[in-house]
Amino acid sequence: MADAPDDGVVVGIDGGGTKTDVLVLGVDATVLGRAAGGGANWEGIGVEAVGAVLDELLGHALDRAGAGRDDVLAWACCLAGVDWPSDPARLDPVLDALGVGGARLLSNDAFAALRAGTSGGVGCVSIAGTGGVCAGRDRSGRTARTMGVGMGEGSGAWSLVGRALDAVAAAHHHSGPPTELSDRFTAAAGVGDVPALFEGVTRGSVHVGADLAGAVLAAAADGDPVAVQVATAVGDQHGRDLAGLADRLGLTDEPLEVVTAGGVHVHGDGAFRDAFRAAVLDRVPAAGFHPLEAPPVVGAALLALEAAGLPGEPVRADLLRVVGSGS
250: domain range? Predict the structure, then answer.
């Protein structure tokens, strides 16, 4: 346990669908405590369960920092599922009940990744993981997001799997070209042929999940033309999402920091990445691309520092290095 801080602490929380990360910093941005546990998306587990997850992890992280909840100067809760103007009213009562002092910032978890990956928090982030979302902030502090509803925008792994299933079915019907995806998907499902795959999907005996996106990207990397087409289409959609967000924020005619995060961005080298970047550059010619290489909770902690009136940007690089290295 660290020595009790004399000047207070700040807390950053990055709560996703499957994992929540809590980081406690001193006012000099020294890492004092950290804890991780289950997801904190109220849409998946309910509002009260989110409160229980945060209560437990805050307790662990603050204990390790030698701090109490009344020592908190500011805390930033960046949580999945905070998507609409009505959502803070759902979560505020359980956050109030945690008994944490100081200023509180509640936002979608995409803004943690955005702050971690951009200078001064200005720019746009594209997250393509199990699902997909884009978020951005201009120099005046105005923010915007895509809706994350899977319509009119990319949905990360689910977009890859959905398009691939369509291509496998088309190949079976001879209305589309043959593809290695047929063998890869039937093997992953443990069935003998394509009709058995779709019988299982439609009757509930075969589960097709977002994890099959890896098979799509692998087939594209191996040169399967249909898989390349799928990865290209999904990358292009995510790129157009990012470019559209930049346009909404008036950021298309200036150098723009574009942060990429999530498993599809990490593993989608080749067709997906090329199409994503081409679609962004088509409308934002001065865009620069910055893969996020440290946990997004760093961004939440920076937001907490700034909410406490403390400088975040001068310590961002060191904090990314320290937290990213696990030290």
Answer: 156-291
* 205 and 278 part of one domain: yes
Instruction: For residues 252 and 274, state if they share a domain.
Output: yes
Please give the model's pTM, rounded to 2 decimal places: 0.91
Kindly provide the residue ranges of all beta strands, DSSP E only, lying in 63-182, ordered along the sequence: 72-79, 103-107, 123-128, 132-137, 143-145
Mean pLDDT of 233-238: 98
What's the total number of domains in the chain?
A: 2
- Token pair, residue 67, equals 């701090």
DSSP label at residue 251: -
Residue 215's pLDDT band, with cuts at 50, 70 and 90, is very high
> Looking at residue 5, what DSSP letter applies?
P
Whether 19 and 40 share a structural domain? yes
The CATH number of whichever domain residue 249 belongs to comes to 3.30.420.40
Q: Considering the domain boundaries, does residue 2 fall inside one?
A: no
pLDDT at residue 144 tops 60: yes
